[in-house]
Hints:
Layout: H1 3-9, H2 12-66, H3 78-84, E1 92-96, E2 101-105, H4 109-112, E3 138-140, E4 150-156, E5 162-168, H5 172-225, H6 242-286, H7 288-302
Antiparallel strand pairs: 1-2, 1-5, 3-4, 4-5
Amino acid sequence: MTGPDxxxxxxxxxxxxxxxxxxxxxxxxxxxxxxxxxxxxxxxTLASTSLGARLDATAEEIERRTAGLxxxxxxxxxxxxxxxQYRFPDPVFLLDLNGEVFGPIWPAExxxxxxxVLDFTWTVPAFLELEExxxxxxxxxxxxxxxxxxxxxxxxxxxxxxxxxxxxQPMRRSVEWELAESRSALWQxxxxxxxxxxxxxxxxxxxxTWWLVRPVRSMAxxxxxxxxxxxxxxxxxxxxxxMAVLGHAINQMADRVSxxxxxxxxxxxxxxxxxxxxxxxxxxxxxPTPARRRGSVFRGRST
Length: 303
């Protein structure tokens, strides 16, 4: 791998950018997960309230159309049974005070786009066998009593005394039907928010990284130019943060280095002058003396 590629891979910008973007994405995922979890709980609460209201309205209609079940199960005519098939996507039962069950009244497949018929065994929830079950409406979305949960609403006669219970069991399809639109809207909103969050995380991460790394890159460029091209170049210091402290430290170090370089250059200049001055003086003092000696001896022999 050549120089530019290595420089790009080792760049601080990409390391900081990936770290910041990764951290933001983790925060986005955690926030989205918590939001979906809380939204799911809120949806179940709303579904329970809505199903309870629909069940209570259905119970009041049965009371009105059967005169409080004065005629027993025979009061349930075919038109009423047909209407009950279009109220809930789950089976509907009627349970009287003696424990006798009428049903199930199966939901109409054309009304709820049901692909298959539920395969289950009717089980009376233990709570429905108690007198407290006739005190008010019950919506249980858990599987504690029976698989799939159940809901019940009391039916009263003309005198206002409870005579039977209107029961939906299980409630899986009713809950899914009730939550279909809200879940679709929730997932659509979650996808939109996730996409926007990712884009914002990338943009914010890139901007923040550029903002943090730009002074470091500028300092690195100045220090690199101090090497030989311009030893008197200094870092431009702005502000009073850690980057400014680092810039001052680099400038002080550069001043000391420049002073050392000037001192070394002055020392080298003095050394060169000393060598240049000492060389000729030494040569002038060494060679003339033997020449005079040879001349004096020659002259003595001549005489």
